[in-house]
Amino acid sequence: MGIDNxxxxxxxxxxxxxxxxxxxxxxxxxxxxxxxxxxxxxxxxEALARLHDAGFRLVVVTNQPDVARGSQRREVVDAMHARLxxxxxxxxxxxxxxxxxxxxxxxxxxxxxLEAAAVDLDLSLSASFMVGDRWRDVExxxxxxxxxxxxxxxxxxxxxxxxxxxxxxxxxxxxxILAHSRSEGS
Length: 186
Known about the structure:
By secondary structure, this protein is of the alpha/beta class.
């Protein structure tokens, strides 16, 4: 099957700043460095449960360039995902551990992470949503053909140019998704 088939609906989620608290320095968000620093944001478990119960597949798509830069180990990233998966209804984690200059197809704002998950999980990208807190997330979702939701934390960086909704939290994003999605199979 192709990547925009009659498959299931999904909500693609950035990790840092959407699911867990990002470390903000100088107005810019950074991932936590250690598993112990990983803090799930308030309301996230409930929002994810609502989306899961509505029939959405939940897929985390995250850039983790510190792995390529040598300041983070992939094992630590994987341990963070295992911890999140132990308490949250996440179906899959997709990670780009390349840096900007690596020329990969998976680093957001490219759509490669979403497209690979769509093939693997039989997802319909046009019936899916991308939730992120940075312009790269929104652009990846747009390029993949998903509806896009921007969680605005007021970072001191480039903002998305085209977005379907701007909200303040994943709870607000879940409300918007549930109000703007069609039922499974319709």
